[in-house]
Amino acid sequence: MKGRGGLRVASLFLLYAISVLATGGHYQFALGFLRVAVFLPAAVLLWKGSSGPLRVPPYFLLLAGFCLLAVGHAFSSVYLWVSLQHALNILLATFLLVAVVSLCDREEPGPLSRWLLPVLAALSVMEIAVAGAQRLASGSSRPHGTFSNPMFLSEFLAVTALFFASRFLNERRKPGGGKIAWGAGALFFLAAALTLTGSRGVVVSLVPAIMVLAVAHFGLVRGAKAFLLFLPVLIVTGWHSLSRFFTPDIYNYGRLVFWRSALRVFGEHPFGVGLGGYKYLWFTSQEPFSQAFRHYEKYPVTPHNEYLEVLTGLGFPGFLLFAAVLLLPLWYAARGWNGVPDDRRWAAAAAVSGLVLTGTNALFNFNLHEFGIVFTAALLLGVLLGSLPGSALGERVAIRPFHAKAGAVFAFLAGLVSLSLLAGALAMWRGESLLRERRFDSAERAFLAASRFDPLRAVVPDALSALYYKRFVAAVRERDPSADRMLLSSIRWQGKAMELCPLEQGFPLRQANLLMEKYRRSGDRRDLEAVLAMADEVLRINPYLAEGMWVRAQVLLDLGLIKEAAGTLERAVSEEPNFCRGYAKLAEIAKWTDPSRSDVLEAKAAECRQSAKNRVLEDGERWLVEEPGASPR
Fold first, then answer.
1. Which DSSP category does 26 fall into?
2. What is the pLDDT of residue 40?
3. CA distance linking residue 19 with residue 12, whole number of Å
């Protein structure tokens, strides 16, 4: 790729490779780098371009409005830090989309159009190699590749398959054997997408995507006929996959349960709770069913539907903007399809079908939370918009220099915030490493630096609280008089974490344990009452949390309220039938009032423990069976 245009395309593809291949705990650093690498140069380009009026398609103004709503709404969200992360990702995707459109918006196809398919294929092959190695090494039936979820890998491979299929259909009448290679590539990547990870949402989403691809290449009538040839197979596979979404069980609650919960959240908060806020209202907004809470603290991060995520996060205004952002390009494609140049038609057809695939999969999965998928969608959308005639996008709107400079300042501030967040993430990662090495002084300095760079992130004061608790335990063991001071510092930092994220159930639960430790040392009844208040707060956030009910029952016993404690434990074992320790404590309480019932409960506890031996317990589930350690962490 020669020339400045080729260099810009190479830089864009480098960022794309980082977004797709980054994984695990280091993904936050890659994402932070992407933000800084995009926002700061964008600020410079906007400032330089503000010398005269800029003329942009109306669609860009719609994107700008959605970005401003996401950023502004973060400050009224349930958890500001999480909502701000989502808003920055939306802003990042928007800037990348503008960059892609600018590189595609030419009379002649540029380097991006020529190199997109090879880059997609290369990244897909790498992902397949990584996933295959995972399967050989661990025997996992659904390897992740470098994506955080097998579903994302399946969607990415399906997009690549659609591009190869579109190129095959474009070359089908040309002489030579090239078309065989395109067809083989389509089958290879499609087989990998459907067999390597087996995402149900992707299988269902391929039905409309393939139909759009057929219509784009053959026209409405012939395309429909071609699609009908494959319809029986698609119906069987699609219906089988779709039906599995709605079966509630202890491992997969069923999408309908998630979706009904999201609609309840929207009904109570029509203007949104902030992006990412759904999970904090999950327990108080959904209907329990048999064994739904077998897995300790199990809850969904999202409603597994991006449209409902936006509806609950940004409310009805945000949902309308989001729907317009997704649907308008399809309308532009339908209106301007005849004006797409012949040499770009196959790529534009693949882009449309890929966008349909992603948009449909968003009905069932949280695919737009994974930035590798978001960047892929931005590339597809950019290729489509850059291939359409200018008339299809409507008359361009003039942007005054003042507004362009304001946009430059906004991008610059977003870059500075991203740089600070990246520094905070690095300091936090360093502090965690030092804490594992028990280098408490160095870890404290790292966590304090993280709190300065990233003051809104609740896990930073939570980590400082954990650090001071470890110091407290060491001081108690060594009979150091500073023990009480360490415990008070731990309580103070835990309170700060609760202030930043008041609906995170783990924070008040840990605070309750810390206050219980303080009560054991002081004997002050007021500390015990504070523990009870924290336990009640935990159960307000999550009415089904067995550990919260356990703490509450323990406090009630210490206060002499035996009947109330027994009632709390009865509720705990009814919500969590595998709470073996709950049965044992109830048997202990009943021993003095109802010996026969005590025997029944002891037998129930023994049966529960025996059942637990016959299955693999998750870390949290062990707490339900075994006695806890000394640490409340």
1. G
2. 94
3. 11
Read off the amino acid at residue 334: A
CB neighbour class for 153 (10 Å; exposed up to 12, middle 13-18, buried from 19): buried
Q: Provide the b/e sequence for 449-484 (b: ≥16 CB within 10 Å).
A: bbbebbebbbbbbbbbbbbbbbbbbebbeeeeeebe
CB atoms within 10 A of CB 551: 26
**Banded model confidence at residue 416, pLDDT cuts 50, 70, 90:** very high
Q: Report the alpha-carbon distance of residue 376 to residue 124 in Å, rounded.
A: 12
To which residue do tokens 């119906």 refer?
235
- Classify strands 397-399 and 54-56 as parallel, antiparallel or unpaired: antiparallel
* Spatial CB neighbours of 628, under 8 Å, sequence gap ≥ 6: none
Closest by CA to 534, choosing from 553, 508, 510, 552, is 508
Q: Which two tokens stand for residue 577?
A: 């039938």
Give the DSSP H or E segment for 461: helix 459-477
E strands, 295-360, where?
none
Q: Are 27 and 148 in contact (CB under 8 A)?
A: yes
Tell me the CA distances in angstroms from 570 to 521, 539, 580, 586, one per residue in order: 30, 15, 12, 8
> Does the model's pTM come out above 0.85?
yes
Neighbours of 233 (CB within 10 A): 9
Give ∠ CA 114-116-122 in degrees, rounded to 5: 120
**What are 56's strand-pairing partners?**
397
Q: pLDDT digits over 289-304, tens only? A: 555 555 545 667 788 8
Task: Report which DSSP code applies to 75.
Answer: T
Spatial neighbors of 363 by CB under 8 A, at least 6 apart, are 201, 205, 305, 306, 307
Structure-block tokens of residue 236:
């069987």
How remote is the C-alpha of 322 from its chain's centroid? 17
